[in-house]
Design brief:
The protein is mainly alpha-helical. The chain has 3 helices and no strands. The chain starts with 20 loop residues before the first helix and ends in a 7-residue tail after the last helix.
Length: 77
């Protein structure tokens, strides 16, 4: 059976505290900016997807995805 390696986002000096809310949100925004700039197939964006998926609760991601679809997302995309 293949061994699965689990990783989380690397430490980021912009977020020095244990509360990772802003880190999560920033990585989510970075991913969607990357996709908007480079396209859905860009592998350069994969790292940002891994980061926000490791940091963000699923409920937040679902809510933000709905907000992006509705044009009400509060972040700078």
């Amino acid at each position: 059976m293949a061994e699965i390696e689990l990783k989380t986002a690397p430490a980021d000096f912009r977020f020095p505290t244990t509360n990772q809310t802003r880190h999560c949100f920033t990585r989510y925004v970075e991913f969607h900016r990357c996709v908007a700039a480079k396209g859905d197939e860009a592998t350069d964006c994969d790292k940002f997807a891994k980061y926000y998926r490791a940091l963000c609760p699923g409920e937040w991601v679902e809510k933000w995805n709905e907000q992006r679809e509705n044009g009400t997302f509060p972040g700078p995309l």
